[in-house]
Amino acid sequence: MILTDWKSGTRGCYCSGISRLKHPCTVSSTSRTPNITYADAITICNYNAFKKSAVIESGWESLVPHLLPFLTTTSFPQNEVDVTSPDYENLTFPEWDSEELSTRWGHRIEDMLLECRWKQSFTCGPQDFEMTWTDFGPCFTFNGGDDRQPGGGESPYVANDSTSEEGLWLRLNLEQHEYIATPFDTAGFRILIHSRYDWATFVNPGIIQAAPGFTTIVPLTKRIINAKKYPYVTNCTDDGLKYFATYTPNTCLLECMADAVLEECGCYMAWMSGGDQEVCDFATAAACGFNALVGVNCTCNMPCTEEQYMTRVSHTATPAQYAIPKLSAKYNMTAEELRNNIVDLYVYIEDMRVTVIEHKEAYDFAKLTSDIGGELGLLLGASVLTVFEFLDYLAVYHLLGLTLLKNFCQRITGKRK
Predict the structure, then answer these.
(1) What is the phi-psi region of residue 333: left when phi exceeds 0, alpha when psi lies from -120 to 50, beta otherwise?
(2) Which of 41, 291, 341, 368 could staple 80 via S-S, CB 3.0–4.6 A?
(3) Which of 114, 117, 189, 46 is nearest to 348 (CA)?
(4) DSSP characters over 192-212
(5) What is the pLDDT of residue 313?
(6) What element of type H or E holds 283?
(7) What is the pTM of this model?
(8) Contact yes or no for 240/247 (Cβ under 8 A)
(9) Which residues of the chain have pLDDT under 50?
């Protein structure tokens, strides 16, 4: 649904249909140490989108079950919502937009972030996280900001080495006492590690789950895939987006979905990007936006150059038994609250080497000219050899003829004498 189908392997990749025999390609993989540093972005989402106390205080608690499908969908909706049903007809949606909703109802990074350290020495804080609307609701991104977009700046957080000291350590508070009923019945954080040039969407398969009572350790490696444009089967794309400076499968997908909602509703959902168009208010999102995505088919080719972060995840229990009294006093929590709410996350670079996967023509112009030269050389070499063989034949033929003629003459002369 998202990516154009393509096949690859150690023996090669081939175009489909008639082009299969005309445009074969090969796949090569190499490792190199980059001249650049790692500056990945980390997006963190609480499984609970809205805080119970804020929702109850606002008086809109009856509205939340109806808002969740529109604000925390992680895929294309399969069925339309009938907003004329009795469940919706008596609802009055608030006037404020989705960003205000996050400010009023959502978890605040100032409350969830207990501690933050970068490279074990620099103390980071809430000011280093940016609230981001995703298809999973309001989330927070560390080290975000695409410097290719207007207003985006270079990353201040770069890793220069692959030691475990070169990483980000977070201690987070789930605030489970603020949980309300969600479609997931799950407590924890969703973590997405992605390029700063990409958009965080949770249709991405590389999602990490961080549970309370555990330290989630995530070593990173990086690979770059260089694909080929048409007529090769990868049929990659590196431009053509209206709302994003960088083409990725996620940005292409979001633009496709935004166009579908814009065409149907005249606005786009909060977790999309629609340029200068308006974000849908709650009433429009409920009556139009969600249903506009039903049945939408987005075909997005792979980018010509794609950065991927490969992860390995491991867990250890936290906090240790001996640390509970100290942490209870520090955070004003009981031992049970610590176990139910504390999530430690440690992300670092495991290897500075980058794996580069490159799709190349199996038979390119250089090989063609080389083969033509070889064949011409063979043919020309054979022609010259034939000339010399012919001359050799003539020489031998004439020498043999002269010898025979001489012998014949000698025999005739001898008989006459």
Answers:
(1) beta
(2) 291
(3) 117
(4) EEE-TTS---TTSS-EEEE-T
(5) 92
(6) helix 282-284
(7) 0.76
(8) yes
(9) 1-21, 35-36, 147, 150-151
